Hints:
By secondary structure, the chain is an all-alpha fold. It is built from ten helices and no strands. It has one domain (10-229). The chain starts with 9 loop residues before the first helix and ends with a helix.
Amino acid sequence: MDEERPEPSFREEFARLVQRSSLGHVPPGETPSGRALLGAMGGVRGLIESILPGLGFLVVYTVTKQVLPSVLAPVALSVVFIVVRIVSRSPVTTAIAGAVGIALSAGLALFTGNAGDNFVFGFVINGVIFTAAAISLVARRPLIGALVGLLTGDPEWRHDKAKFRVALIATILWCVVFGGRLAVELPLYFAGAVDVLAGAKLVMGVPLYAVLLWVTWLLVRTAWRASDEGESEASDDV
């Protein structure tokens, strides 16, 4: 009779989810490359699917100043992305998730009649990430270190001063970026400068995230690789 396999712990399940996400495409023990960074962001198709809906909103709103066509343009683009993935037999989960987010944003804007409300869900996401990172800093458990620890199976990272310092710096950078987005975009939202807000969201969206991801993994790689090399040398001396 086969023995029953123990149920995976919450930590193991969460680590598996992190490894399947975009974060898992850039192993901290390897030299980050342009291809790895691009893969972490979903490849060329992922970049296009991330940028075009926002660009479509900006162009249509700038031309028409109307809520309905402005919010429907991104929805239409997201549907096209799903169809293209289905036809090309590519995974559609990411495209569907993006379409749901775009549809919810469009629905809120149509419900209120305010084109600026198309960005409210983005504010919520930025706020959640900023809050989680800030709380992790206060708790002395930097969020980036926790994620990398899960990815690498390194639960003792907090006891390594170099790893902890790098995780602290990287988490502060995430706080600055996501807090900076809110600091720039919220005043534009309340001022009703929808077209400027849409442009700021494009500039502070994918390009800034790419830079943040790149810098984060350069920092993480330095600390984790140095630690692994030190442990390897110590074991060789035994």
